[in-house]
Specification:
Strand order of the largest sheet of chain B: 6-7-8-3-9-10
Strand content of chain A: 15-25%
Radius of gyration of chain A: 21 Å
Low-confidence stretches of chain B: none
Order of helices and strands of chain B: EEEHEEHEHHHEHEHEEHHHHH
CATH architecture of the largest domain in chain B: 3-Layer(aba) Sandwich
Number of domains of chain B: 2
Largest sheet of chain A: 8 strands, mixed
Structural class of chain B: alpha/beta
Number of helices of chain B: 12
Largest sheet of chain B: 6 strands, mixed
Helix content of chain A: 25-40%
Low-confidence stretches of chain A: 329-338
Shape of chain A: globular
CATH class of the largest domain in chain A: Alpha Beta
CATH topology of the largest domain in chain B: Rossmann fold
CATH class of the largest domain in chain B: Alpha Beta
Number of domains of chain A: 2
Shape of chain B: globular
Oligomer: heterodimer
Mean pLDDT of chain A: 90
Number of strands of chain A: 13
C-alpha cells in the first residue's frame, strides 16, 4: 500500500473518537459524534464543512474552551503526546498560549476594549513566558513586525477600536504567536474581512507558518481558502469526518458525494459562470439521532444500506479516506486506475 | 428590439452626505460621490466593493429609504429623487429589497403566511380568498411547501427564511429587486439553491436586480453588468465578462483576483497592499492611489495625487483611472515580474 499523505512522525495533535454533546433544558444535542483527526508536524490541516457540522466545536475542544454545558468524550485527545482528556482548569491555562493558541473569526470581539493592544500582549508574555519590561517590549515589537504590521509602535499604544478589522486580525495573530505555540487553531480567520485584506492575511499565515514551522488546524467553510493554504483536508458533515485527503487529491478527485457537491456548488470567480450544482435539502438538526448515513437524505447515490448502516471511514488506494458505502467501490476503481 | 429601451433606473450625479459628530467636532462624510448608474428593465447589475465603499448607501438611495444630498434618481423616466408622503408610498411596490440576515429581517412574531401577506395588505386591497391564493402561489414559486404557512421564522432554516423574504419582496410584482448580500449568511449548498431560485424568478417576472455582494462568484453567476465602487465612487462599470477578464481599473484587476481560486493552486496573481482608507479622510486625487500597483509601475505620476479621475469612454478612459488605457498591458508586466 502506498504511504498515506498524512503525518509521518508523531502528530502534534491526535484526536480519536471525539464526541461532544450540549446539555440544553430538556434535552441533549450532539455537535460532534466521533471525529478522528491528526495534525502533523508543520502541517496545515483544513477542517471544512457547513454551519453546525462541528468544526468550531472540534477546534474549541483542543483548547479546552467549550462551555460548561458541553459533555466532551474522546478515546484519545493528545497534544504533543500529552493527554488532554482530564486536564484541570489550571493545567489548561498553562497549555493555552504556549503549546496551542487560537485565532478567531471576529477580531473585534476577541480583544478587551479597555486595554491597549500592547498591554494585552504584555499580559500574555508575563503570564506564559515570564517576560517583562524591555525583553517583553522587544518580543512584542518583533512579533508585530513579523505579522507585517505597519507602524508597530502606534499599534502597541492603540485601543482595539482604533484599528481596522485587518489590523486587528494581524494583532490577534501576533498575540497568538507571542509564545511560539506548536499548534495554531485558526477558526475562519479571514471570513469577516474584505477580500483584498483576507488575501493579505492568508498569505501572511502561510508565510509565518513556513518560517516558524508551527502546525495549523484551519477551520473554514471556504474551499478556495482550503486549496490555497492547507496541505491536507478533513471534510466534516453532521459531526463526523466524511472524507480526508491531501489537498491536491481532494480537489482532483473528491470521493464523497457531499464533497463533490460542495465543490460544485461554489460560484466561480475565476472562470465564466457555468451551471451551479445544488445539494438538495439542508443539514440535519441533530446528528445524534441519525441512524445510517447522515447525508443520505440529500444524496443522489444513496442505496438501501445507507439508511440502516452508518458508513465508517475507510482507506482507498492512494491514502484518501472516505465514509460512504457507494463512493468507495466506484472510487476504488478510479484511484487504482491512476 | 432595435428601438432604444429607456432605463428602468437612471441615477445621475448622486451624492449622499452624512453629518458626523465626533469628539473632535462635527463634519460631513461623503458616503457616495458623483454616481451615475443605469439599470435596464430586466437587467441584473452587480455592485461590488469593500466595506465602506458606499454600496449599501447607494442602494438605500435607490430604494429611497434615504434622500439623496444631490443628483437625481429616475424610475421609468420619472424623477423620484425627492418624493415624499403618498407619492413615495406609491413608489414602494416598484422597488423591493431582500436583506442579508434572513432571520433578523423577518418579524419573529409573525407567521410565514402573514409575513408574505403583509406587503399586499399594506398596498393592495385583496379579499381574504385572493390573499390566500396569492400567498400559496408565492410559496410554490419560491419553493416552500404550503404546510410551512403557520410557522414562525425561528422554526425555519436560514435558507427557508430567505425564501420567505424573497416571496415577500416579489409579492407586489416590483420592477426592481435590490438584493443586499442575499446569500452571505447561507451555507454554500443552500446558497446554490437560492441563487438558482433568483435566476428563475428573474426570467419569469422580468425583474431587474441590483445585487450587492462581496462574493464575486455570486456576482459573476447572477449579473450581466457590474459596477465597482471604491470609497464612494464607481470606479468602473461594464459587462460582467470584461470586469472579470479584462478590467481597466487597477483596483478591479486586484479585486477579482483576490479570492483564492477553487480550481487552481498557487498564490493570488496580484496582491494589494494596504487597506481601504476612511471616508472621513479620503486621499487627495485618486482615492486608490496609495494602494495602486499601476501607479507604482508608472513611477508615481503626479496626476494620481492631484486630480480625481472620472470615467470617460470617449476620451479613452473606460475606468476612473488616469492610465486606464494602459491597465491591461501593464497588468501582464506586473504579474510576470
Amino acid at each position: 500500500m502506498v504511504t498515506p499523505p498524512g503525518p509521518v512522525s508523531e502528530p502534534v495533535l491526535r484526536i480519536r473518537d471525539l464526541r461532544v454533546r450540549f446539555r440544553t433544558p430538556g434535552r441533549r444535542v450532539t455537535a460532534v459524534s466521533g471525529i478522528d483527526l491528526d495534525v502533523g508536524q508543520g502541517e496545515i490541516l483544513g477542517v471544512v464543512g457547513e454551519t453546525g457540522c462541528g468544526k468550531t466545536v472540534t477546534g474549541l475542544s483542543v483548547l479546552g474552551l467549550l462551555p460548561d454545558t458541553a459533555e466532551v468524550e474522546a478515546a484519545e485527545l493528545r497534544l504533543l503526546g500529552r493527554d488532554l482528556t482530564s486536564l484541570t482548569d489550571d493545567q489548561w491555562r498553562g497549555l493555552r498560549g504556549t503549546d496551542v493558541a487560537m485565532v478567531f473569526q471576529n477580531p473585534t470581539g476577541s480583544f478587551n476594549p479597555v486595554f491597549t493592544i500592547g498591554a494585552q500582549m504584555r499580559d500574555v508574555l508575563a503570564a506564559h513566558d515570564g517576560l517583562k519590561g524591555r525583553a517583553a517590549a522587544a518580543r512584542i515589537h518583533e512579533v508585530l513586525t513579523a505579522c507585517a504590521m505597519p507602524d508597530p509602535d502606534r499599534v502597541i499604544g492603540s485601543y482595539p477600536h482604533q484599528l481596522s478589522g485587518g489590523m486587528l486580525q494581524r494583532a490577534m495573530l501576533a498575540l497568538a504567536l507571542l509564545s511560539r505555540p506548536k499548534l495554531l487553531v485558526a477558526d475562519e480567520p479571514t471570513t469577516a474581512l474584505d477580500v483584498t485584506i483576507a488575501a493579505q492575511i492568508l498569505e501572511l499565515i502561510l508565510g509565518l507558518q513556513r518560517e516558524m514551522g508551527f502546525s495549523v488546524l484551519f477551520i473554514t467553510h471556504d474551499l478556495g481558502v482550503v486549496r490555497r493554504v492547507c496541505s491536507r483536508v478533513a471534510v466534516l458533515y453532521a459531526g463526523r469526518v466524511v472524507e480526508t485527503a491531501g489537498t491536491a487529491d481532494l480537489f482532483r478527485a473528491p470521493q464523497h458525494p457531499y464533497t463533490r457537491g460542495l465543490i460544485a456548488a461554489v460560484p466561480r470567480t475565476h472562470r465564466a459562470a457555468g451551471a451551479l450544482a445544488t445539494i438538495r435539502g439542508s443539514v440535519p438538526p441533530d446528528p445524534g439521532a441519525i441512524v445510517g448515513c447522515a447525508f443520505r437524505e440529500r444524496c443522489e447515490l444513496a442505496i438501501e444500506r445507507c439508511a440502516t448502516e452508518r458508513p465508517e471511514l475507510r482507506s482507498l488506494v492512494g491514502g484518501q479516506r472516505v465514509a460512504c458505502h457507494v463512493a468507495t467501490d466506484e472510487a476504488g476503481a478510479t484511484v487504482a486506475e491512476r | 428590439m432595435s428601438a432604444p429601451v429607456r432605463p428602468l433606473v437612471e441615477v445621475r450625479g448622486l451624492v449622499k452626505e452624512f453629518e458626523v459628530k465626533g469628539h473632535r467636532g462635527s463634519g460631513v462624510v461623503r458616503a457616495v460621490t458623483d454616481v451615475d448608474l443605469d439599470i435596464m428593465p430586466g437587467e441584473a447589475v452587480g455592485l461590488v466593493g469593500e466595506s465602506g465603499s458606499g454600496k449599501t448607501t447607494l442602494a438605500r438611495n435607490v430604494l429611497r429609504l434615504v434622500e439623496p444630498s444631490a443628483g437625481t434618481i429616475r424610475l421609468d423616466g420619472t424623477d423620484v429623487t425627492h418624493l415624499k408622503g403618498g407619492a413615495l408610498r406609491r413608489l414602494r411596490p416598484q422597488i423591493q429589497v431582500v436583506f442579508q440576515d434572513p432571520v433578523g429581517s423577518l418579524d419573529p412574531r409573525m407567521s410565514v403566511f402573514d409575513l408574505i401577506a403583509e406587503p399586499m395588505r399594506a398596498h393592495r386591497s385583496l379579499s381574504r380568498g385572493e390573499l390566500r391564493t396569492t400567498v400559496e402561489r408565492l410559496l410554490d414559486e419560491v419553493g416552500l411547501v404550503r404546510s410551512l404557512r403557520d410557522r414562525r421564522p425561528h422554526e425555519l432554516s436560514g435558507g427557508q427564511c430567505q425564501r420567505v423574504a424573497i416571496a415577500r419582496a416579489i409579492s407586489l410584482q416590483p420592477r426592481l429587486l435590490i438584493l443586499d448580500e442575499p446569500t452571505s449568511a447561507l451555507d454554500v449548498s443552500v446558497q446554490a439553491q437560492v441563487l438558482e431560485l433568483l435566476v428563475r424568478l428573474r426570467a419569469e417576472h422580468d425583474l431587474a436586480y441590483l445585487l450587492i455582494s462581496h462574493d464575486l462568484g455570486v456576482i459573476r453567476y447572477l449579473c450581466e453588468r457590474v459596477a465597482v465602487m471604491y470609497l464612494g465612487r464607481i470606479v468602473e462599470q461594464g459587462p460582467t465578462e470584461r470586469i472579470f477578464e479584462d478590467a481597466r481599473h487597477p483596483y478591479t484587476r486586484a479585486l477579482v483576483l483576490a479570492r483564492p481560486d477553487v480550481d487552481a493552486d498557487g498564490p493570488p496573481r496580484l496582491l494589494l497592499s494596504g487597506e481601504i482608507p476612511s471616508a472621513t479622510a479620503p486621499p487627495p486625487g485618486c482615492a486608490f492611489h496609495p494602494r495602486c500597483w499601476l501607479r507604482e509601475q508608472l513611477g508615481r505620476p503626479q496626476e494620481c495625487e492631484t486630480s480625481v479621475p472620472t470615467i470617460d469612454e470617449r476620451a479613452g478612459q473606460p475606468a476612473a483611472c488616469h492610465f486606464a488605457a494602459q491597465t491591461s498591458e501593464r497588468f501582464e508586466r506586473e504579474v510576470e515580474g
